[in-house]
């Protein structure tokens, strides 16, 4: 009677164990499955991320080369005065390069952060999978133990008594062993994958830290450049210094001024100006927002130098937009990035307004138009600078009638 009860209990345990086992899908270690949609998507995401990072790194290399070319250009200038002037006139260019570098750095950081977030989510999902698999593994081990899956003689006897034949007993034993082996391999595989993901996450965190350092360095450089730019913009035309320089080097500068005027007359003589009538109307102030006239049209420096235009300046004027005083056609441009006696007007533009009326904009830091362009009143054509014979940032503005300079003030007031 006791044996029968024992046999019935054993059979019940076996049935319960088999129900637990059969309730879960079983994939044997020697079977293979195609990659899931999630795994394929993750692989594609990894590849896309690496390609994007590679493209950004290529852009960074180009920017670094651009910055190096800029530094070489400045380093090759031997004259200290010219070098300082070149730094002032090209500081906008360097800031632009630095801003591009910062933008790229921020893009790399955002991209890496997004990738890290994706990988972190994948790791969390893998951890859940492992926990589920371990729980299933615990349930299976319990069921296998209760049904005699282990090799000790007592449990084998229970399985033997519950089997209808020796063949069924051997088949069931092999089946249960394969299930146990599969769970073991599955857990080990998930564990290895988790380690790999954690390692990749650590690498990405290091990359993020490096990018953050790059960002901080770039922002520091940008702040320094903006400080230099502010100082350059606040460097107003110093007429006292100019007069002292003129008086100290009178013969040289007087000869230079005559030479410059002769060259301008020659330029105006050969200009392909419009035969149309003057467009008319009052001209617009060529530097909006800056109204200080540091040097008027006429004789100056105790009657030793005749000023052929008027100089417009003001705090922060360096780099300020210079606009066309009236509608017309750009007929002449000259780019000269340095200052000094021999450079005279430095970088300048001449615009023809018809009827023999032209305007000239000198000492620019940049030109935004080309010869032949038709410009309208108020359109930006350049930026205020300090090129040519100049002791501070300002715009030298001239109006000429048939090539001869006249007082520009009545045209713009």
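Q: What amino acid sequence fits the structure above?
A:
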């Amino acid at each position: 009677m006791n044996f029968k009860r024992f046999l019935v209990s054993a059979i019940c345990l076996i049935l319960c164990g088999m129900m637990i086992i059969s309730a879960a899908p079983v994939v044997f270690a020697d079977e293979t499955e195609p990659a899931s949609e999630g795994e394929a998507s993750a692989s594609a995401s990894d590849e896309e991320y690496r390609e994007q990072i590679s493209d950004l790194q290529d852009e960074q290399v180009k920017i670094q080369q651009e910055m190096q070319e800029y530094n070489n250009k400045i380093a090759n200038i031997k004259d200290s005065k010219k070098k300082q002037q070149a730094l002032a006139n090209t500081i906008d260019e360097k800031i632009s390069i630095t801003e591009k570098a910062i933008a790229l750095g921020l893009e790399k950081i955002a991209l890496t952060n997004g990738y890290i977030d994706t990988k972190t989510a994948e790791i969390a999902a893998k951890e859940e999978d492992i926990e589920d698999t371990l729980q299933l593994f615990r349930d299976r081990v319990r069921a296998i133990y209760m049904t005699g899956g282990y090799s000790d003689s007592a449990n084998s006897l229970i399985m033997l008594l519950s089997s209808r034949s020796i063949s069924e007993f051997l088949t069931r034993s092999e089946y249960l062993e394969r299930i146990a082996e599969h769970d073991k391999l599955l857990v080990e595989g998930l564990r290895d994958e988790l380690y790999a993901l954690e390692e990749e996450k650590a690498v990405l965190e290091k990359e993020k830290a490096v990018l953050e350092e790059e960002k901080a360095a770039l922002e520091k450089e940008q702040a320094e450049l903006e400080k230099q730019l502010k100082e350059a913009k606040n460097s107003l035309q110093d007429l006292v210094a100019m007069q002292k320089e003129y008086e100290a080097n009178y013969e040289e500068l007087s000869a230079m001024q005559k030479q410059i005027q002769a060259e301008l007359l020659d330029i105006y003589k050969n200009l392909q100006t419009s035969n149309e009538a003057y467009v008319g109307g009052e001209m617009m102030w060529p530097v909006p927002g800056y109204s200080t006239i540091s040097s008027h049209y006429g004789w100056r420096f105790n009657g030793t130098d005749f000023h052929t235009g008027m100089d417009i300046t003001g705090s922060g004027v360096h780099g300020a937009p210079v606009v066309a005083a009236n509608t017309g056609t750009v007929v002449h441009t000259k780019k000269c990035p340095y200052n000094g006696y021999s450079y005279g007007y430095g970088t300048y533009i001449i615009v023809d307004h018809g009827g023999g009326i032209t305007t000239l904009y000198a000492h620019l830091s940049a030109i935004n138009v080309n010869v032949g362009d038709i410009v309208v009143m108020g359109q930006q054509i350049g930026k205020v600078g300090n090129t040519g014979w100049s002791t501070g940032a300002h715009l030298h503005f001239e109006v000429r009638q048939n090539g001869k300079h006249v007082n520009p003030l009545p045209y713009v007031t």
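Q: And what stands out in the fold?
A: The CA atoms of residues 17 and 143 lie 4 Å apart.
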